[in-house]
Design brief:
This protein has 195 residues and is mostly helical. It has 10 helices and no strands. The chain is elongated and about 60 Å long.
């Protein structure tokens, strides 16, 4: 006797498919197929295509969801009456990024270092470098950072953050990794070190 299929609200069904894909891709990265996702979600294969025209559409939705989660976990500072400690804020974002990167497991490669990522690059406004550049500009306006080129410096710092996450993933002590990254960011951005 077959178990009756659950009727879900379309938004809930879409979330369920995304959650199933996330669980599987975390564990098996690029070995996941549509059939695996619908089996994990307890849905019919045709249901997948009601929500995602292609596999890449699912990956893009999953990547956007991850960006939203990161932005909720590490929100940008908001204006306040108290001055913002921009170096500490930047260090906090770097630590949040490293932790988030390590938590992604197989999702990281599938969403950021695959054919999908090359065919559908991260929109400039969503990527880490854009967020870092905005923080550098705000820190410069507050006098906390030196006169560096914000966009290029952000790209370099983001590359260092990515390498820091890779080093931690490969077994380097996380405290040593973050200390080295802090030193690099401090030297890149502190006014007295700026060219």
């Amino acid at each position: 006797m077959r178990t009756p299929r659950r009727r879900l609200d379309p938004a809930d069904r879409r979330r369920e498919l995304l959650a199933a894909a996330e669980r599987l891709i975390r564990r098996r990265a690029d070995q996941v197929r549509v059939e695996d996702v619908v089996a994990e979600a307890g849905a019919a294969k045709g249901t997948f295509y009601l929500y995602f025209a292609t596999w890449d559409d699912l990956l893009e939705a999953l990547r956007n969801e991850l960006f939203d989660r990161f932005e909720a976990q590490a929100p940008e500072p908001v204006e306040s009456l108290d001055p913002i400690d921009w170096p500490a804020t930047l260090r906090g974002m770097a630590r949040a990024y490293i932790a988030f990167n390590l938590e992604m497991e197989g999702l990281h490669d599938a969403l950021f270092h695959s054919d999908f990522a090359r065919n559908r690059p991260v929109p400039r406004h969503r990527g880490g470098p854009a967020r870092l550049a905005a923080m550098i500009r705000a820190g410069q306006e507050a006098g906390a950072f030196g006169p560096v080129a914000p966009d290029l410096t952000a790209r370099m710092i983001f590359a260092a953050m990515h390498e820091a996450a890779d080093a931690a993933r490969e077994g380097e002590d996380l405290r040593d990794v973050t200390a080295a990254l802090d030193t690099l960011m401090n030297r890149a951005l502190t006014p007295e070190f700026a060219p």
